Amino acid sequence: MICVSTRGQAPAVPFRQAVVSGMAPDGGLYVPAALERQSAAWWEGLRHAPFQDVAVAMARALLGDEFDEGELSALIREALNFPIPIVRLDDSLQVVELFHGPTFAFKDVGARTLARFLALSERGVAASDGTRVEGLTVLVATSGDTGSAVAQAFWGVPRTRVVVLYPEGQVSQVQEAQFTTLGGNVSAVAVHGSFDDCQRLAKEAFADAALRQRVRLTSANSISLGRLVPQMFYYAYAALQAAPGSRVVFSVPSGNFGNLAAGVMAWRMGAPIAGFIAATNVNDTVPRYLETGHYEPRPSVATVANAMDVGAPSNLERLQWLFSGDRAAMREMISANVHTDDEVKRAIAELHRRYGYVADPHTAIAYLGAVEDGASHLFATAHPAKFAEVVEPAIGEAVAMPGPLAEALARPRLIERIGPTPRELANLL
Ligand SMILES: *Cc1c(COP(=O)(O)O)cnc(C)c1O
């Protein structure tokens, strides 16, 4: 898959190189130069197929030129080894649950696949850049959630090591349990300092030329195309579970708009999708752009759906590129709506009362979006137990903690401790 930059000022590169680089050298984001449209018959051949089969077929169509078939299918099946249940609320609305991965949030889909793409791609790229470092060290500074998603994603991936820096005593118990109890190729490092100290240490490590001679550092970049490609698969899967000819419209709870960009890419590839609804919290930069044509980012506002608190969504640039900057064409395919915290809490209560469905705040926004603009499907992006402090008061009941989270809490913590100095981190690396 040939990849180009959204800003058009960087050389085209193969997907493997785009994954290792993360961002294009001109500051743009990598996008597929062309998304070859598969025939209607090709898609019909996947009607009612299991999720992993749809994923492998699409991965082969997209990346078969760069990866060995067996290697690619093993990678996809290992990364996406959890179910994506589709729950029927009523005759016209279904919930596509994306949160059954190890950290109970939909980012597992992208992170687990990216981890394996990176491990495979790095081999080829390492051979060509002349250094002799074996393997890859993923360095991540976290205030909580990123660390667990990245650590879980890379856990057990060959030739990689993850080092998670976090401020000692300043992450939640559940978050700490998720990245300090893994062991193996995951090192959890409690820094005697703040989150800012952790971020500064990571930055200094990336800038330390001597260190980088002996350790191949990478950052598992959140805007990598390697995270978007696997997110195309569940759109097609859910659309292909519907009866042939159904009008499939997805309501997507959006923050950084990676999820929606992946949906548009799946549609471009010919998946039978009729439209999208971008549902946001009050961080409404993209809905305002669709309405007015002006991109006016704002500082983010804290909401109960905090994974969507993004004031300057980076993937809007990808969406614009995908529609060749034609806002009218974009609006034909994507409608947008915006929801306050009060509406979200009422929606959680309504979903519970009307359907007996327990939704987290992000999923509740997708529901509101679906009701407002008429979707057939909405995405559930996090397990409600991760947001119990919002969900429980809204439904008046306790939310059970999923078994694996409870188990992680009970396991012993494996923690290294350092002071906030570059020397101590370099020694540890
Ligand atoms: C990241 C996230 C989103 C938003 O996804 P984007 O791709 O950033 O738009 C929605 N819900 C949850 C739970 C998330 O973690």
Termini gap = 34 Å
What small molecules does the structure contain? pyridoxal-5'-phosphate
The strands making up the biggest β-sheet line up spatially as 4-5-13-10-11-12
What is the CATH class name of the domain at 82-108 and 225-400? Alpha Beta
Residues in helices, as a percent range = 40-55%
Low-confidence stretches: none
Describe this entry's structure for a reader.
The chain is an alpha/beta fold and 429 residues long. It has a domain at 82-108 and 225-400: Rossmann fold (3-Layer(aba) Sandwich), CATH 3.40.50. Helix content is 46%, strand content 15%. Strands 4-5-13-10-11-12 form a six-stranded mixed sheet, with helices on both faces. It has a five-stranded parallel sheet with strand order 9-6-7-8-14. A three-stranded antiparallel sheet has the order 2-1-3. Helix 5 (107-129) crosses helix 6, helix 15 (341-355) packs across helix 16 and helix 15 (341-355) packs across helix 17. The longest helix is centred in the first third of the chain and has 23 residues, at 107-129. The model has no long low-confidence stretch (mean pLDDT 93). It binds pyridoxal-5'-phosphate.
